[in-house]
Amino acid sequence: MKTLSALATAAFLVLGAGHAHAQACKSPVPDSALVKKGTLVMSVNPTLPPMQFVDQTGALKGMRVELGEMVAKRLCLTPEYVRIEFSAMIPGLQGGRWDLINTGIFYTDERARLMQMLPYEDQAISISTVKGNPLKIAKPEDLSGKSIGVEIGGFEERKARELDKQLTDKGMKGMTIRTFENFAMAYQSLRAGQVEVALSIDSTAAEYQKRGEFDRVLHGLFPTPVALATKNRQLADAVAKVLNDMKADGSFQKLFDQYGVKAIDGAVAVKGPAG
Length: 275
Known about the structure:
By secondary structure, the protein is of the alpha/beta class. The protein has helices at residues 4-24, 63-74, 89-94, 109-112, 155-169, 183-191, 202-210, 233-249, 251-259, and strands at residues 39-44, 47-48, 52-54, 60-61, 78-83, 100-106, 116-130, 147-151, 176-180, 197-201, 214-230. Strands 5-1-6-11-7-10-8-9 form an 8-stranded mixed beta sheet, with helices on both faces.
């Protein structure tokens, strides 16, 4: 039987090993670059299955949620998510409410002048209808005169308005654009017959079709990379290194393959204001 002294020594060694491991995992991101010490606070709008959503237990799930957790772990930080509508994300980032926008924000040069952006995933726009596609929509011109639901304030709303302009420039009747706080509400409106089509990202429209809820009748429109975004350049550089390390060791592509999503070609680079 071990003596009390031996047991105490063993316990000390275990605790010491745990402490040494914690010390070895030192974050390259200084506390001054973070909203909360030792934590990577990320904003997410969990209304885009399978990329980001809330499951039946209320837990956050999805590819981007997993990616954020993997990044935080490699930065030796604790991941923390703030669930919020997209329209509040950029002002919240600029106001210091979170460190990182992790909601699949589409990259634009305009946005890259406001914040540090890390394009990492290829996405595009889809159009969904109720099952059976009763309106027989097969091309963008078939949207003429239709009512469309879309999330407010983002790239997707902008593209809905571009589609509308394309129609009217051809002398056709435009669309009636209805905006909603998030994509889930846009799809609920489609389900209720309040709009005739809904616009979202390819991955989400494909997921809803897979579930048998809606038909994805158009896809691959306006292909554009989506990004992570942060205000702090030091944090952005650290995240870029993590993503490129993940690309090198295969964990990045493994995650993307699991969800059937295409990663950008080449290295992840920071695009944003200098300094």
